[in-house]
Design brief:
Elements lengths: L2 H21 L3 E5 L6 E4 L6 H15 L2 H12 L12 H7 L8 H17 L19 E3 L6 H6 L2 H19 L13 E5 L4 E4 L8 H15 L6 H17 L22 H14 L7 H18 L29 E2 H14 L9
Antiparallel strand pairs: 1-2, 1-6, 3-4, 4-5
Helix pairs in contact: 1-2, 1-12, 2-3, 2-4, 2-12, 4-5, 8-9, 8-10, 10-11, 10-12
């Protein structure tokens, strides 16, 4: 790997240590681009697993026992979410534990969360519903309910693997338009109207939500890496990945997309780019003629992130901050900030390229 990625890896790992000292037992959410000070949450919300995951990645990087204990303690604080009614448990418990290696307590918590998600699946709707733990209507199909959930459910035995496949394919059917459709090609969220018995697209998030497209691509990449995938399923998933990549301009568009592709002059979202890098690195590990192209594009996007959006030693701000992440463009919330999940996926990509983790298992 290049010297630039090595320096970037060292910077983001140091940033994890600085953040840990600042936030203590709380969970970082987003940091001010001016000074790097974090806005935090007490319970972690849907992003808590990314902070635990960052701590596990740092523990792998340093090999230090205090870092491992810090990661384990943070993961244990996620436990109340295991029984919460939210499909974001995929984000919380997969990314919060997958980098933990052979840590028995992390594995046990992940298994408990997987069983809880499996029991909450709705076989008639074919999904794990969005849930009401974070507010809003329960019967939603949202693309951010899919990444993490696929490998989490797949670890819960044959029934879990079947539920993971159903959950993903139902979201693909609902969220991806078909040729000739009058509706937008991408619908990141749909609500189920019980009285009418049908799904209806939601206005928020908008169809151009770039992070939504990245989330779904990541979920498809994870499913393609599942050893139980049949030949037919592999073909269907490969077609879905190709649609997301082509229609989303993943290989040809700007390396760092706008938060809303319908507003090209609006704020960027480096977190969407970082998620896409990880998805492409995973896709590059699947059989197919475009694997090398996916790997090269992942490295191109990663290079842009670390050269143009990552703070360094020559900056007045703390080094290792991935800036220009957009939490919520519509509500103008944290639109040019460092985001904890953006940090996680950038760090995961760098860690994979430097041999700290196997990208096919995290």
């Amino acid at each position: 790997m290049s010297a630039a990625t090595g320096r970037a890896l060292a910077a983001v790992m140091e940033r994890v240590a600085v953040t840990a000292a600042e936030v203590g037992p709380r969970f970082p959410l987003y940091a001010d681009p001016a000074d790097g000070r974090w806005t935090t949450t007490g319970r972690g919300s849907w992003t808590g697993g990314f902070w635990a995951g960052l701590l596990w990645l740092r523990a792998r990087y340093t090999g230090a026992e205090p870092d491992r204990r810090a990661a384990a303690a943070c993961t244990a604080r996620l436990e109340p979410w295991a029984g919460a009614d939210t499909a974001t448990r995929g984000l919380i418990f997969w990314y919060g534990t997958a980098a933990a290696g052979d840590d028995a307590e992390a594995a046990a918590l992940r298994a408990r969360a997987a069983r809880a998600c499996l029991s909450a699946c709705d076989p008639e709707l074919g999904i794990l519903p969005w849930g009401d733990a974070l507010g809003g209507p329960r019967l939603l199909a949202r693309v951010d309910a899919v990444p993490g959930t696929v490998p989490l459910l797949a670890g819960a035995g044959p029934d879990g693997a079947a539920a993971a496949a159903a959950h993903l394919h139902r979201h693909l059917d609902l969220c991806l338009g078909r040729p000739g459709d009058a509706a937008p090609w991408f619908r990141p969220a749909l609500g189920f109207e019980t009285a009418a018995g049908r799904w209806q697209p939601c206005e928020d998030p908008p169809p151009g939500w770039s992070r939504g497209q990245a989330w779904l691509l990541l979920a498809v990449a994870d499913a393609l890496l599942q050893p139980a995938a049949t030949a037919l399923e592999f073909t269907l998933l490969s077609e879905a990945a190709a649609l997301l990549i082509t229609r989303g301009g993943v290989l040809t568009g700007r390396p760092v997309p706008p938060a809303d592709t319908a507003r090209p002059d609006g704020p960027l979202d480096t977190s969407a780019a970082a998620i896409t890098v990880v998805a492409l690195l995973k896709l590059a590990r699947t059989p197919g003629p475009r694997a090398e192209q996916y790997a090269l594009r992942a490295e191109e996007i990663l290079d842009r992130l670390i050269r143009s959006h990552l703070t360094g030693d020559d900056d007045s701000r703390p080094p290792g901050m991935l800036l220009d992440g957009c939490y919520d463009a519509a509500n103008r919330l944290a639109v040019r900030h460092e985001l904890v999940w953006g940090d996680f996926f950038l760090t995961l990509a760098l860690s994979a390229l430097h041999g700290l983790v196997d990208i096919t298992h995290v």
